[in-house]
Specification:
Distance between the termini of chain A: 14 Å
Largest interface: A-B, 33 and 33 residues
Largest sheet of chain B: 9 strands, mixed
Strand content of chain B: 15-25%
CATH superfamily of chain B: Aldolase class I
Helix content of chain B: 25-40%
CATH class of chain B: Alpha Beta
Order of helices and strands of chain B: HEHEHEHHEEEHEHEHEHH
CATH topology of chain A: Rossmann fold
Helix content of chain A: 10-25%
Number of helices of chain B: 10
Strand order of the largest sheet of chain A: 2-1-3-4-13-12-11
CATH architecture of chain B: Alpha-Beta Barrel
Strand content of chain A: 25-35%
Largest sheet of chain A: 7 strands, mixed
Oligomer: heterodimer
Distance between the termini of chain B: 29 Å
Number of strands of chain A: 13
Chain lengths: ~200, ~240
């Protein structure tokens, strides 16, 4: 197995598995804490509400396991947001692995919320997850909440204000966009993750 | 397209792969006879499409319940789109957005001009059952947003299939009250129509079917021209 995909109850599990499958990687969707702990890499996906996802992680004791993991962990979309301390979505306490808060996006003229569609990364810090992906690369975003730019931001995205598109602290990475639906650039990023 | 015909499903995969390779940003699969026939979309093809597609796609047609939506999303679709079932039971939008988040709940509106303003139509996939719902489009567009729709696809029936351009006036009217992404549908006939609807109606995306299916417009040409016109598009 190349990576464990945590069964966070979201609906994008199939598309994520298919994306890894297209790269020739073997993944397992699981909520089993032992299996997750033993996996070489762990993906925390998430679609839906922060409270539902946290409740699900708590039920299988994955909320206490995740902070102890030392292998590469990739949070995707809501999965990235859950890595932080708290989300404004339902004022939900999250995993607290990364310092910071998840904020509700505010709609503005020409910037409807949710932020839905293709958008490009601004300046990127050098990071193995983004190897071969230059600033200006487009990824597919779908989210109504976001992480403000902070010292963990590896690549920001402009949408009304500037938000974190990619974050990293040690072995924990998070991407706000959906690499599994981001065509060739998404495949490259997932491929990079598999070589971490 | 007849989704229940296995031969045709093969064609869907081929078409989907072709559009992916040509640079389409998103695909929408409409099973337009699902609602009038009282059936839901088959799930089988959704999984097969999800396996080959690496761009987002949305499935529309006869989704009347949370569990039907869940099956489609679990099979790998990014979003589901509801139209006639939402007109019949608007609370469906609340239930879907509570369960899955508004980001994957699209509401499609088939809009026709009335003597005054615009009216939403129902069951438009079947000429025998298509009818005006009695709902004013602007009011309905406001209501679906309050109920949790994350995107609105406005299909202007008057211009649909005519290829004389999108209904800019109508799209502008909806844009003015629409806080969520708005997708223009109906009327694309030439590349200039796309540029016009982005510029003049301020929509977030433009949807077209027949001009792509027939090969009248190739997606790479369209994107190049849009870029040339100063409209930001994904390369």
């Amino acid at each position: 197995m190349d990576a464990a995909i945590i069964d966070s109850g979201g609906a994008n599990l199939a598309s994520l598995q298919f994306a890894f499958e297209r790269l020739g990687a073997k993944t397992r969707v699981t909520a089993d804490a032992r299996e997750i702990a033993a996996a070489p890499r762990v993906v925390l996906p998430g679609v839906g509400s922060a409270a539902d996802a946290m409740e699900r992680l708590r039920r299988s004791a994955i909320d206490t396991l995740l902070p102890t993991l030392t292998q590469p962990v990739l949070g995707i979309c809501l999965g990235m947001q859950l890595l932080f301390e708290r989300s404004e979505e339902g004022s939900t306490p999250c995993l607290g692995i990364l310092p910071g808060q998840v904020r509700r996006l505010t709609a503005a003229a020409g910037r409807p919320v949710p932020h839905m569609g293709w958008n490009r990364l601004e300046d990127c810090k050098a990071d193995p997850l983004l190897a071969g992906l230059a600033p200006g690369t487009y990824f597919y975003f779908v989210h109504g909440y976001g992480v403000p730019v902070c010292e963990l931001t590896v690549a920001p995205v402009e949408y009304g204000g500037t938000l974190s598109a990619v974050v990293r602290q040690g072995n924990f990475w998070g991407v706000q966009f959906h690499p599994e639906r981001s065509a060739a650039s998404g495949a490259r990023l997932l491929g990079n993750f598999l070589s971490l | 397209m007849r989704f229940r015909d296995h031969r045709v499903v093969g064609d869907i995969l081929e078409l989907a792969s072709r559009y992916r390779d040509e640079g389409a940003d998103e695909l929408v699969f409409y099973d337009i006879t699902a609602s009038p026939e009282g059936r839901s979309v088959d799930r089988d093809w959704v999984g097969r499409v999800a396996r080959v597609l690496d761009i987002p796609f949305c499935v529309a047609g006869g989704i009347r319940s949370v569990s039907e939506a869940e099956a489609v999303l679990n099979a790998g679709a990014e979003k589901i789109s509801v139209n006639s079932p939402a007109l019949a039971d608007p609370s469906l939008i609340d239930r879907l957005s509570r369960r899955f988040g508004s980001q994957c709940v699209v509401v499609g509106i088939d809009s026709g001009r009335a003597s005054e303003g615009y009216r939403a139509h129902q069951f438009t996939g079947d000429p025998g059952r298509a009818r005006e719902s009695g709902r004013d489009v602007l009011q309905w567009a406001r209501e679906v947003q309050e109920r949790g729709a994350g995107e609105i696809v406005l299909n202007c029936m008057g211009s649909d299939g005519v290829r004389r351009g999108y209904d800019i006036e109508q799209l502008r009217a909806v844009r003015a009250i629409c806080q969520v992404p708005l997708v223009a549908s109906g009327g694309a006939g030439e590349i200039g129509h796309f540029a016009a609807v982005f510029r003049e109606a301020g929509v977030d995306a433009a949807l077209a079917a027949s001009v792509f299916h027939s090969g009248a417009i190739a997606i790479p040409d369209l994107k190049r021209e849009l870029r040339f016109a100063g409209i930001e598009v994904r390369p």
